[in-house]
Amino acid sequence: MSQNGVQASVKKGVTYNTILEAAQRPTPLVPLRKLKVEHQLQSDIYVKLEYLNVAGSLEDRTADKAFQFAEEIGVVRGDEVFVTAGGSTAISYATVAAVKGIKLTIYAPKGEFALVDTVLHTLGMPTVELPVATYSEARALTEEAAQQKGAFNLNKFTTNAAFVANLQKTACEIERAVNNKSIGKVGAVVIPLNTGAPAAGIAAYYKGTGDHGVRVVGVTCKKDTIPEMGLDLKNDLLQEYGVEKREVDEEEAYSFTRHLIGTEGIMAGPSSGAAVLEAIKLAKELPAGSTIVVVLQDGIRNYLRHFLDDDWIVANKKNVVTRKDGPQPNSTYDPKVLVYDPTKLAGEWTQDPETKAWSHSEVEFNQFNPERPLVLDTVLDAIGKTPLVKLQHVPKAHGVKCNVYVKCEYLNAGGSTKDRIAKRMVEIAEKTGKPGKLVPGVTLIEPTSGNTGIGLSLASAVRGYKCIITMPKKMSKEKAIAMASLGSTIIRTPNEAGFDSPHSHIGVALRLKSEIQDAVVLDQYCNPGNPLAHYEQTAEEIIYDMGDKHIDLVVLTAGTGGTVTGISRKIHERIPTAKVVGVDPHGSILAGPAETDIDFYEVEGIGYDFLPGTLDTSAIDYWAKSHDKESFLMARELIRTEGILCGGSSGCAVHYALEECKSLNLPEDANVVVLLPDGIRNYITKFLDDDWMNERHFLDA
């Protein structure tokens, strides 16, 4: 291994032809170490992170398998298909249908689309809310509608698909971890129950192997009031395969899930939290040294305006403790605390004059490891190794001939590419004491547009730090709730405040740092860990996964500049003929002050009103200036036609990548890589919402 972490011989990785191919990657297992100590357990509990599936839930496996069954009997692209599903399950079916080009209509009982209707609409799938209370009634009406309209009814496969997918995939992945001695022999698998078919499939696996000592425990809600729990139980299937049933209280589940997120950084939905709660109780019943695996149904995406939102808790009179307000900066302050230059990189990172490699750094380089283990040490190890997916429809629709690959950074543990820099900055501070010493209980303060704040909130939860995030008001409420759920305090600042204002997110962070003892600002604008994370890892992943496919063009949006700087330096070092294009919104000056006046723009997470120290403009071959409308429309097109659940800055990157492809007239054998910074979770009330888009005249009449 050389000094800068480049392997002497690089093995070929893999790219995926669709996002569904990427869904075949196993989801990781993570031990709950803090909760083990807190509850004085003598057994180990591991959680299986199904929310890192491509559409965000365990049901992705079921939906993919159900459509495979349908294709085997003749269903093809363009066919009309009906299915009965709600919640995360509906999103899974809609995502698979989007990729396969199936005209899917989704039916559900009353209220079952409440948390997911905006996402389903953006995926382009019609929904029909039926005036019935149960799924059995809804399936009967779905069958009637399918017969009347001559559509294929997918319901004939859904239960069997859930059973088979979890028998063949979920259970096998757990046992692979046992077989390679990453975890001990499994004593119990705990899983939330909705239909119960996934639990039955896992139980069938263990019965089929002759291992009758593994208990499969399904968890439901006592009053069926937790979303996606116990609403469509197949009790005969549970009895046939010996699945035990346990019940939890709704409010206890909500309180515990909030605690789970803030303690372990496991960003789980309420049914998943309920399953972990029961696993803790079960651990006290099993022999010491037992291993319990909890299959997490889904993540927090659908619940940011539900149990994670204190306003919802209060409005619905739930007996759940709400969060306390954190510290606010004093109204009076010493102006000297605002003396700060965000335009200078802290520490040396220079290029070797002979080799041209960026190999001289005060910070020790991390070696690149392309492997993603089945079992991780903490959830922070689920950062990186994101899939590279070839776009099949969008480039052709826009007259682009070449191959366009997108790196799906929304599949990082915290949901964005900023998870990488948060983890790296924390690692550096823990190891070197720069820019401040980190010990449990220390307060991290960070000014951010949101995603870095989520990454640092995640790292703080796992590592035991307090965290305060200062963030402009224009950033979505979803981001704020995600950070708060991880235990951070959020302070909003005026959009119009310039970076050097005492009232800006940077100014407020500096004032708080001067007031809170031993507080540390890691400072993403100057911290070398920001570009280093992308130089050491993200760029290496791109090169590794592209293998022998030559890279002609890399297109990256720019915010702090760490992503474009780190990736560009490594790409130019390893592939000198490749060009790197930075995308900067109108209203930002990253592409150069002469390019635009400072102004407001809606796309979050990119652009700035100053040039951060982490941005090396010489590393970018040239810039494209972006507009909000085209960025959001492209993001919605990627969601609708490719099933890639990306955010607005991702749409920005792809739109201007396609413009460059056409401008350069790239041939069919050219390869372009575009990084997608984040996903839809943070923007459900923003660009996914038609009313929000119409208010800003972003939707064509």
UniProtKB/TrEMBL annotation:
DNA-binding is among the record's keywords: no
One protein family per Pfam: PALP
UniProt keyword annotations, A-Z: Pyridoxal phosphate
InterPro entries: Cys_Synth/Cystath_Beta-Synth, TrpB-like_PALP, TrpB-like_PALP_sf
Pathway(s) the chain acts in: Amino-acid biosynthesis; L-cysteine biosynthesis; L-cysteine from L-homocysteine and L-serine: step 1/2
Ranges where the Tryptophan synthase beta chain-like PALP domain occurs: 23-298, 380-678
Reaction catalysis annotation: L-homocysteine + L-serine = L,L-cystathionine + H2O
One Gene Ontology biological process: cysteine biosynthetic process
GO molecular function: cystathionine beta-synthase activity; pyridoxal phosphate binding
Enzyme class: lyase
Cofactor(s), by name: pyridoxal 5'-phosphate
Protein EC: 4.2.1.22
Family the UniProt entry places it in: Belongs to the cysteine synthase/cystathionine beta-synthase family.
Stored PANTHER family: CYSTATHIONINE BETA-SYNTHASE
Subunit structure: Monomer.
Protein name: cystathionine beta-synthase
